[in-house]
Design goal:
TIM Barrel
């Protein structure tokens, strides 16, 4: 797929009607799983049983990627691979030896990414760039104030983009919507995780495609 890509995060959907919510974005053929443990971040989303059910319901027509916001993410690598997850990003702040973890992810047949928390400097990525399939940059953090997009994060995105020189895709995650998707695209991002903006829209697919159009026109 060419151009800027937006990936809906099911964690922002209505959990009481999750099958219906998946169907609302099914034409996009992609879905993001934010898996949070209540320790690495304050929130808890869902466990491996729910991931299995989501994967079974999605079938082979929806590509799944996962973002582990948790301690001890290594324990989840094989179970997620067994569910058919295609891409997996772990937080470099949560693993002691990132290269070993990236290799473990790839041995299980998934593309491997490193995620950076809001306050982690871009330079921490430099030793690992050659082993990365993608980078996920948090553009908001749990702050008790609706997790707002923080404009100074754009400087960090530009530094990362200069480091990788477009060889490694840069994803952004955190309060991304039509009002800021153009600026993250210009700063070097090629994909965005989108949640509340999509699942609160009357037509989620149209919402995603409009954001992709805006980003692609300005990147």
């Amino acid at each position: 797929m060419s151009g800027f890509v937006c990936i809906p995060s099911i964690a922002s959907a209505d959990m009481l009607h999750i099958a219906h919510e998946i169907n609302r974005v099914r034409p996009l053929d992609r879905l993001h799983l934010d898996i949070e443990d209540g320790n690495f971040v304050p929130n808890i989303t869902f466990g491996i049983k729910m991931v299995r059910q989501i994967a079974e319901y999605c079938g082979e027509t929806i590509a799944l990627d996962a973002h582990l916001m948790m301690n001890n993410p290594e324990l989840w690598i094989k179970p997620l691979a067994d569910c058919g997850v295609a891409k997996l990003a772990v937080h470099m702040e949560s693993v002691r030896y990132p290269l070993d973890t990236l290799s473990f992810i790839k041995r299980h047949g998934m593309m491997a990414g490193l995620a950076l928390s809001f306050a982690t400097p871009a330079e921490y990525l430099e030793p690992f760039i050659g082993s990365l399939d993608y980078i996920l940059v948090m553009t908001a953090e749990p702050d008790g104030a609706n997790q707002c997009f923080y404009q100074p994060i754009l400087r960090k995105l530009k530094r990362i983009a200069a480091m990788v020189e477009s060889h490694v895709p840069i994803w952004v995650d955190g309060s991304i919507g039509p009002d800021n998707i153009a600026v993250v695209a210009r700063a070097g991002a090629s994909s965005a995780i989108v949640g509340r903006t999509v699942f609160t829209a009357a037509n989620p697919v149209s919402s995603v495609r409009e954001m992709e159009r805006i980003a692609s026109d300005t990147s």
